[in-house]
Amino acid sequence: MPQVTLLSHTPDPIRSLYMAYRVCYSSLTPQQVAERIEAERISRETMETFVAERLKTGHTSPLEQVVFEFAISGVSRAFSHQFVRHRVGISFEQQSQRYVTYRDGGYPYVTPESIRKAGFEEEYERHLAEAGSLYARLVEAGVPAEDARFLLPNAAATNFKVTVNLQALLHICDLRLCTRAQWEFRKVAALMRAEVLRVEPMLGRMLQPKCGELRMGYCDEELKAWEACPIGRVRPHKEVLFRVYEQHRRGELQPLRAEDYAAIETLTGEPAPEAGASAG
Ligand SMILES: Cc1cc2nc3c(=O)[nH]c(=O)nc-3n(C[C@H](O)[C@H](O)[C@H](O)COP(=O)(O)OP(=O)(O)OC[C@H]3O[C@@H](n4cnc5c(N)ncnc54)[C@H](O)[C@@H]3O)c2cc1C
């Protein structure tokens, strides 16, 4: 199972964000703003409210001034191939298979739950052990680890130390908390979110899949994927939004009918079906 630990972060993220945004919109110098914070003339509540309002806008560059440092371990190379595709606002250090030699061919690996459930765990482990044993014989014969590793599977476990800024972390969560992302990446993103929630709840709550109410608020994946997504029950799809908008623009939105008013009058108080829920 992946393990994620928040090692450190910008000392006071809300204050940093407040300073960054305030400088843009204030006639005061940043030094004067800092002095007012020190003198408690600007309260924490004021800073939080101001930052929360700014976070609703597209002014995102101040988010690059807040960073989080994570230790991530017990993840597969299948995960790491995807992780390092993120190019902006995140710096990676990853355990090397060139400089780390697995003695006696024993290497850590990840087993997907689906393989266990399908009853293939034993066969899977045997296959990985065979690769490990040939790896050991190659190393023993003088083949360098960087070449012996060609045998190692995507299942081989690896470790990271990363530093990521808040803007990049929001983007990673947009994509990787989405139910379309791979399970291991979803797990890592969820653990990163939990770590940020622990130290700065207001920012942690912002880390959502892109359809989250604090992010886009709708789904832009394929309609079919939205229909299959459990979150689709509470998030509209962009095509649905466009359809409603088009109807509204053409003045074709269906007017409320007599039976609708009758339903309003006779409503029993049972909860209404959620948006996107299938009929029946
Ligand atoms: C569900 C899912 C399935 C995927 N399937 C595949 C797949 O089959 N094959 C595959 O190869 N990859 C796949 N990917 C990876 C995907 O294509 C991206 O490489 C990865 O998600 C990183 O996303 P990003 O480029 O938005 O992030 P970052 O690299 O962190 O970029 C952050 C932002 O900066 C922009 N940006 C970065 N560099 C540039 C640039 N040079 N010019 C202009 N804008 C830039 C990005 O568009 C993005 O908005 C998949 C990702 C997901 C989430």
Describe the fold and architecture.
With 280 residues, the protein is of the alpha+beta class. Strands 1-2-4-3 form a four-stranded antiparallel sheet. It is flat. It folds into three domains: 3-72 and 159-206, Gyrase A, domain 2; 106-155, Single alpha-helices involved in coiled-coils or other helix-helix interfaces; 218-280, no CATH class. 46% of the residues lie in helices and 11% in strands. The chain contains 13 helices and four strands. The longest helix has 20 residues, at 121-140. Bound molecules: flavin-adenine dinucleotide. Flavin-adenine dinucleotide (FAD) binds next to helix 8.
Strand and helix layout:
Layout: E1 3-9, H1 13-25, H2 30-38, H3 44-54, E2 67-76, H4 77-83, E3 90-94, H5 113-117, H6 121-140, H7 145-148, E4 157-165, H8 166-176, H9 183-199, H10 201-206, H11 223-228, H12 238-249, H13 258-266
Helix pairs in contact: 1-2, 1-3
The protein binds flavin-adenine dinucleotide.
Flavin-adenine dinucleotide (FAD) binds at residues 85-88, 168, 171, 175, 180-181.
Give the amount of beta strand, in percent.
Answer: 5-15%
Architecture of the largest domain, according to CATH?
2-Layer Sandwich
Distance between the termini: 38 Å
Task: Tell me the number of helical segments per DSSP (H or I, 4 or more residues long).
Answer: 13
Bound compounds, please? flavin-adenine dinucleotide
Give the low-pLDDT segments: 273-280
Q: How many individual domains?
A: 3
Secondary-structure class:
alpha+beta
Specify the biggest β-sheet: 4 strands, antiparallel
Number of DSSP-assigned strands: 4
The CATH topology assignment of the largest domain is Gyrase A, domain 2
Mean pLDDT: 93
Q: What level of helicity do the residues show?
A: 40-55%
CATH class of the largest domain: Alpha Beta
What sort of overall outline do the alpha carbons produce when their principal axes are compared? flat
Instruction: Identify the strand order in the major beta sheet.
Output: 1-2-4-3
Q: Give the topology string: H per helix, E per strand.
A: EHHHEHEHHHEHHHHHH
Rounded to an integer in angstroms, the radius of gyration calculated over CA atoms is: 25 Å
